[in-house]
Amino acid sequence: MKKTTEDYVKMIRLLQKKNGTVRSIAIAEAFGVSKPTVSNIVKRLAAEGYITVGKDHLIELTEKGLLLADETIERNRTIRELLISLGVEKSVAETDACEMEHAVSAQSLAALKTLAKRKCIQA
């Protein structure tokens, strides 16, 4: 799985939750990139079955895209919250979680969730 794919479907999901609808310009603004850059990635995501783009240019996650977005968000949340609970500064934990969310295996994520639950009980 490409990091870019996970980042984009996650951002689309977050923008949908925040704004209700998503257009390429909102994604470009969120990432600080050009609209042509987003356009190329949106075309690829649509070809790979993660999103659809309507005639009104609204971007929607497919079931496949929604699943990937929610999994990526969950990995990020778990890692971020665990790092914060271990005393990592919030801004550092957020930055690190964004990188680590792409590399953690399902087995390691399960172990991190177990650790996070134990850490919450002890806190």
Structure description:
This protein has 123 residues and is mainly alpha-helical. The chain folds into 2 domains: 65 residues, Arc Repressor Mutant, subunit A (Orthogonal Bundle); 51 residues, Orthogonal Bundle (Diphtheria Toxin Repressor, domain 2), CATH 1.10.60. The protein is 72% helix and 5% strand. It has a two-stranded antiparallel ribbon with strand order 1-2. Helix 1 crosses helix 4 and helix 4 packs across helix 6. The radius of gyration is 16 Å and the shape is elongated. The model has no long low-confidence stretch (mean pLDDT 91).
In short:
The chain has six helices and two strands; from the N terminus they run αααββααα. By secondary structure, it is mainly alpha-helical. Helix 2 (24-31) crosses helix 3.
Rg calc:
16 Å
Number of helices: 6
CATH class of the largest domain: Mainly Alpha
User: Given the C-alpha coordinates, what overall shape results?
Assistant: elongated
Strand proportion, as a percent range, falls in: under 5%
Q: What is the helix/strand order?
A: HHHEEHHH
Number of strands: 2
Query: What's the helical proportion of residues?
Result: over 70%
In CATH terms, what is the architecture of the largest domain? Orthogonal Bundle
Uncertain spans, ≥5 residues at pLDDT below 50?
none
Strand line-up of the largest beta sheet: 1-2
Which class of secondary structure composition applies to the elements? mainly alpha
Q: End-to-end distance, in Å?
A: 35 Å
The CATH topology of the largest domain is Arc Repressor Mutant, subunit A
Q: Number of domains in the coordinates?
A: 2
Name given to the CATH homologous superfamily of the largest domain: Winged helix-like DNA-binding domain superfamily/Winged helix DNA-binding domain
Mean pLDDT: 91
